[in-house]
Amino acid sequence: MMAEREYEKYFRQNRLPHLWCPGCGNGIAMKAIVQAIAKRPELNQDNTVIVSGIGCSSRASGYMDFDTLHTAHGRAIPFATGIKLARPELNVVVITGDGDCTAIGGNHFIHGCRRNVDLTVVLFNNNIYGMTGGQASPMTPTGRKATTAPYGSVDRPFDACALAEAAGATYVARSTAFHVQHLTDMIAKAFDNHGFSFVEALVQCPTAYGRKNKLGSPADMLKWMRDNAVMKAAWDKLDPATTAPEKFPIGLLYEATAMDYDTAYDQVIERAGGAHA
Predict the structure, then answer these.
(1) Are 54 and 76 in contact (CB under 8 A)?
(2) Are 191 and 273 in contact (CB under 8 A)?
């Protein structure tokens, strides 16, 4: 029982209940992060820092009882990079949303991947700008409606996981708010990677996205995740030509080994010191 409830100490109880809409998936993803931290005995409130940007997802840092930083829109990754360079022994976690990370924060995202900064970035993907009025984000699926796309978006959405891999991240995974234990495991394994770790967490937004697209109740949106998510091992056996377009893979999508930015920067400092000796 103690292990099951251990995560509760990682919340600021005086800040709860949260302000997310009823049925929102952000609370599920936030709990998955603290459960993942609880699964790693070497991690605690003294060596873990939570950094967030602006958006529905980024409100999570205010509820989590760690050293937390609520930063400017799209700028969570560079703030987190500064923390990691100054205090490389810390476990630095970034919570961001699909708009925060892939729109205004897009360059910071790809360069964080490119540099292989030792961060764990968890993207809460609700396919919409939920907090600011329901505008289409770079991850709103083609054809889906938003306040800025009342007849359906014509833009092709990013595949954030494919983007992270192509840009140089060394751990890339995806899960959903339905697959709670799986999402927790993906985040916990991200902590083990020494480099840029990216986890996309699909979460339901029944208010701004679901209602506009007539996707039913929050439970219906979770059932859609259940019915369309395919574990990576099974996904690799599917024929793309016959696979339904709404299907998507979850699990560990990519993993590699490369020098992280902290180590590379330390080597520069060492060389600079030797040059002036």
Answers:
(1) no
(2) no
Characterize 208-243 residue by residue with b for buried, 16 or more Cβ atoms within 10 angstroms of its Cβ, and e for exposed: bbbebbebeebeebbebbeebbbeeeebeeeeeeee
Distance, in Å, from the CA atom of 199 to the CA atom of 95, rounded to the nearest integer, reads: 10
| CB neighbour list of residue 56: distance below 8 Å, 6 or more residues apart | 20, 24, 26, 97, 124, 126, 130, 131, 205
Distances in Å between the Cα of 65 and the Cα atoms of 30, 88, 145 are 12, 20, 36
| Residue in the structure block whose two tokens are 């873990």 | 48
Q: Are strands 67-70 and 197-202 parallel, antiparallel or unpaired?
A: unpaired
What amino acid occupies position 268?
A: V
With a threshold of 0.70, does the pTM exceed it? yes
Mean pLDDT for the stretch of residues 221-246: 95
Bridge partners of 69, per DSSP, are 51
In terms of Cβ atoms closer than 10 Å to its own Cβ (0-12, 13-18, 19+), residue 5 is exposed
The dihedrals phi and psi of 85, each to the nearest 5 degrees, come to -70, -35
Alpha carbon distance 103, 276 (integer Å): 42
Where b means 16+ CB within 10 Å and e means fewer, 57-66 reads: bbbbbebbbb
* Number of other residues whose CB lies within 10 A of the CB of residue 247: 13
Look-up of token digits 């990519």: 254
Per-residue pLDDT tens for 239-256? 989 999 999 999 999 999
What is the phi/psi pair of residue 113, to 5°?
Answer: -65, -45
42 contact partners, CB below 8 Å, separation of at least 6:
none
End-to-end CA, the chain: 58
Q: Quick one: CA dihedral 169, 249, 214, 17, positive or negative?
A: negative
- Helix (H) / strand (E) element for 36: namely helix 26-38
- pLDDT tens digits for 102-131? 999 999 999 999 999 999 999 999 999 988
